[in-house]
Design brief:
Blueprint lengths: L3 E5 L7 H9 L4 E4 L8 E5 L2 E5 L11 E4 L7 H13 L9 E4 L7 H14 L11 H9 L16 H17 L7 H16 L2 E2 L1 H10 L4 E4 L25 H4 L10 E7 L2 E3 L12 H9 L12 E3 L1 E2 H10 L4 E5 L9 E10 L2 E3 L6 H6 L1 E8 L16 H14 L3 E5 L7 E3 L7
Parallel strand pairs: 1-8, 1-9, 2-5, 2-8, 5-6, 6-7, 9-13, 12-14, 13-17
Antiparallel strand pairs: 3-4, 10-11, 14-15, 14-16, 17-18
Bound molecules: guanosine-5'-diphosphate (GDP), 6-O-phosphoryl inosine monophosphate and magnesium ion.
GO molecular function: adenylosuccinate synthase activity; GTP binding; magnesium ion binding
Cofactor: Mg(2+)
GO cellular component, one term: cytoplasm
Amino acid sequence: MANVTVIGAQWGDEGKGKIVDWLASRADVVVRFQGGHNAGHTLVIDGKTYKLSLLPSGIVSGTLSVIGNGVVLDPWALRDEVAKVEGQGVSITDENLAVADNCPLILPLHRDLDALRETAAGKGKIGTTGRGIGPAYEDKVGRRAIRVCDLAHLDTLEPQLDRLCAHHDALRAGFGQPPVDRAALLEELREIAPFVLKFAQPVWKRLKKVRRAGAKILFEGAQGVLLDVDHGTYPFVTSSNTVSGTAASGSGLGPNSTGYVLGIVKAYTTRVGSGPFPTELEDDIGQRLGTRGHEFGTVTGRKRRVGWFDAVLVRQSCAISGVTGIALTKIDVLDGLDQVAICTGYRLHGKVYDYLPSHAADQAACEPIYEEMDGWHESTAGARSYADLPANAIKYIQRIQELIECPVALVSTSPERDDTILMRDPFVD
Ligand code: GDP
Ligand code: IMO
Ligand code: MG
């Protein structure tokens, strides 16, 4: 199998960035295919930390990096991130970065609307990253979006602005806000256009060419399956499809191009923002895992909610996303616990469930059924071979593998790129 698609199999922040960076040396191209700068992917290479939101994680290793059409692109955020990463010594040129010219743009008015809606929603708020992601995707499917290719046609943007502003001015009025300042918006677009257009191209064509030449493509998902707009814990989800199938539609390649689907799975569970979380721990163990795992959002700095491993959710994610094998990350965070627990089912209204029901109220009422196992006191941090893992950690990994009905291909034992145990090479299997 030549290509690999990396997706998060929980609620995001599973360690996708670390694994994509590690795999990037085996790939010729890394492609982002959905989401936007709501993503926060952390890479640690020889002690140096890189935080990426919009740039594909292949950029740091110099691999050709592509932002596909399925991404919503905030051009100002892109410029800031390019400057930040270049400041860390990474060269970013039109040789190693390509942006799909049919990407919809995130505009300042999307950020405004995201914030206005969240504030108005009170207790019903989703807890978004506030980056305008939802409103930008709404305008895409509402056929009102300004896209990257429009930046080369700003002199004829008026009819599109009419459509866009007719929609947004009505919404803004409902929130007591002034209409969109069209002249200011156009001016901002004129100012940013040359920067974005430098990278813009029909990336489907570029990908077709490199694929024909035998290139290995690594697709980098953002968020996680439980945040998928169809399959996740709706409405507490993001506004894109995060499942593996999106790699094809979000980059302009066919469904046969996605290859090996590598689900990234944290050895416990975390979530940022609102919504159901059956195995959430609000006790000392939750605190301990959060502290040891540095569970704070990369994008917003919010404290992540923490809980035990939920095998029901991961089994469901793996099935929905056609996961071939998983990378189990952050096993080291569980070091030193006397006991560890895995959720194997839910109790709801007197019945046992082996899946997460679709309704939000049912999801919130699910009580986890736990299986307890002995923990391990030895350190797994930095282990680079399976044989270096303590016997109980191996038992834990094997039990997860059985319960989720999917093999473990990689284990990650620290934030560092090379602290990774390879059991099955996704580019070969
Ligand atoms: P992503 O959004 O899926 O890319 O994940 P994030 O980067 O937002 O969050 C994962 C965090 O865990 C980052 O701070 C990583 O540096 C860190 N990390 C990744 N793998 C491991 C691991 O195996 N052990 C530990 N302790 N930290 C890890
Ligand atoms: P990575 O790629 C974790 C969550 C937000 C919120 C919901 C909707 O780093 O795994 P949005 O701004 O997308 O409309 O917010 O989705 N969320 C993430 N949680 N990791 C992410 O990305 C996330 N991107 C969005 O916290 O609950
Ligand atoms: Mg993240």
